[in-house]
Amino acid sequence: MAVRMKDIAEDLGLSVVTVSKVFNNHLDIGAATRERVLRRMKELNYQPSLHAQGLASGRTMMVGLIVPDLVHAFFSEVAQSISDVLRKKGYGLVIASSDEDPELERSEIEQMIRRRVDVLIIASCQSDPASLKKVVEQKVPLVLIDRSFKGFEANFVGTDDVHVGEMATEHLIGLGRRIIGHIGGQTVSTSNDRLAGYKKALAHHKIALSEKYIVRRTLGDQAADTTGREAMERLLLVSPRPDAGFCYNDPAAIGAMNAILAAGLRIPEDIAIIGAGNIRYAESFRVALSSVDIPRKALGEYAGEIALQMTGKKKPVKTRKILVSPKLVIRESSQVSKVSLTAAPRPKKRPSKAVARPKTEW
Amino acid sequence: MAVRMKDIAEDLGLSVVTVSKVFNNHLDIGAATRERVLRRMKELNYQPSLHAQGLASGRTMMVGLIVPDLVHAFFSEVAQSISDVLRKKGYGLVIASSDEDPELERSEIEQMIRRRVDVLIIASCQSDPASLKKVVEQKVPLVLIDRSFKGFEANFVGTDDVHVGEMATEHLIGLGRRIIGHIGGQTVSTSNDRLAGYKKALAHHKIALSEKYIVRRTLGDQAADTTGREAMERLLLVSPRPDAGFCYNDPAAIGAMNAILAAGLRIPEDIAIIGAGNIRYAESFRVALSSVDIPRKALGEYAGEIALQMTGKKKPVKTRKILVSPKLVIRESSQVSKVSLTAAPRPKKRPSKAVARPKTEW
Question: Any CB–CB contact under 8 A between A16 and chain B?
């Protein structure tokens, strides 16, 4: 463990109180003693404890973050961004993953409370807010990110997910597609709302909604590409076959695209695909993936700033809700090039990718 | 902040010492008082502080982790794995990213020391171990992961990166390729050693080494796909053009592949590509990426276990060095299918991907 005041005191045959007084510039210490202590601190490169400083003010200088999956690039980018904001104010970020397991999340929440984090930031995988109410009861300031709960007042930084679902689905309808499948997630607000947006867009265009084109996942994000593939395999069996698919997140879309290609079908000619999240490398997948971008960096920054505002506040502060704006990023997976729109019927085996097809983003 | 002993004491008009004695089952507290305190603890759902418990034993129950880039899937998987090991023993993981910036890493190290983490785990982006020596001087137990330093004794969990470079290059040579480019990283042990392995494999097969086929990055991992693309753009101008490329990590390989495809060339027919790390979704990229897999989960588990063994130990323990075994994962980017080996000369514009080409892994 690091050099402590105690070590310096023992080295010099002084009391910890004396050493502490020197460190805090008390005037009742003689010049010779002060000199000895400061010299020894320098020799040992003594670093004052943030804990000791924090505890005096009732703070631990730690913010807790619980995400469903740290390896999902969406959440690691958010974590990175929160960390960047906190570090500038000397706060550390304790990170835990719930693996999209509500039970594990509850246990991590308990640990964070016992760890006395100054603020707790959670992208919750619970389907109801019961365990989050306990956080509030324990007077631990709480910031929800990405996922919220109806009827549960809390600080929240996320996006309008109904709008995300609408944007994605409207885009597919705009391509002339009419049999649009949806691959949804577990029952958290993001996937619930994106599904609602999908339904809203269909209704707006008077396209009949059919439940057989909706496949929702029951498992968590961690295996989203696997379950996305399985969901698409099911959708490919529905008759008539869908000509487009909106996947609630990008990992699911990757799996869905792999299923389509494995079935010998073309993207986007046979089935256009769009995801949500616009994760790193989305442009480098087998077919460059269209997505609804959700600005992770801004989301993390807002969450970090709210957390900083709440540290050390004993009384509840007015809750804040901040929504970052999603934006459509169109790539090859939902872009029908002019060539293929005007071309004569093509041989069945024509591969799905043209090497130099341009990308468009806006 | 969470409910504290102090709050309970104030509520009941008792001293904190009394409340603490009840909590710790001291016998010198009357039954009535004990009853009142325990009831109030239950009502408020009091969670004992891990800090308070830890401080008594000189520990903070926190392990620090500094990685170069949290969003690079390799490091987020390692972090996840370390966290899984620590959580079972009640330890938390404080994570910081250095953004591959040695200066920022030094500042994060200082913060971690001031935070009194029980152990510090670092994948360092320094080119010399000076700032890590300071960690040792401060008596903070240290575990290096992924990247090590010659002549600096420290616990280390990583892989034999010379072997990684050899395996990758041997594989390309085995495909019959003879003009093999290398895209390297900054001067840390992983990229230094992978380059050494590349040279060793060439020497073993008596293939002349030419510096013009080696492009090393000077920037960090964060923009590895961008710099991988730029490096490949440079290699494509070299005459004769390389027929294969070994990239020191997968993000660089993604960028390199994008540059090759943008130039209208085919992977692997014109240029075979292999990366290292085998990051998540490597199989879903524009061309499924061959890579040398480095078992992240095992690496993180070993690091977490060593960290646990060192917590609370004041005297230095014998340092340990654990190497996880890399393994070759061959996918489309370096696999010439039988069809294309036996086929007649193909039209220049033939796209690089066959939809149903099988993947092989071993």
Answer: no
**How much is the pLDDT for A219?**
58
Q: Report CB contact under 8 Å: A286, B281.
A: no
pLDDT of A266 above 90: yes
B226/A contact by beta carbon, under 8 A? no
Nearest 5 degrees, angle CA A240-CA A245-CA A251?
140
Confidence of residue A53 (pLDDT cuts 50, 70, 90): low
Q: Are B184 and B218 in contact (CB under 8 A)?
A: no
CA-CA distance, B271 to B172, in Å (whole number)? 10
* Closest-approach residue (CA) in chain B for A223: B280
CA distance A163 to chain B (A): 27
- Tell which of A55, A105, A115, A249 to mutate to test the B interface (max B CBs under 10 Å): A115
Does the bond joining A351 to the residue before it have cis omega, within 30 degrees of 0? no
Interface test with A, best of B95, B250, B289 (most A CBs within 10 A): B95
Q: What is the mean pLDDT of chain B?
A: 86
Question: Quick one: pLDDT at residue A30?
Answer: 87
High-pLDDT (> 70) share of chain A, %: 87
**Pure H helices in A138-248:** 161-174, 189-204, 224-235
Task: Write down the pTM of the prediction.
Answer: 0.82
- The C-alpha atoms of residue A189 and residue A174 are separated, in whole angstroms, by 26
Q: Give me the mean pLDDT over the A261-276 stretch.
A: 96
B346 inside 8 A of chain A by CB: no
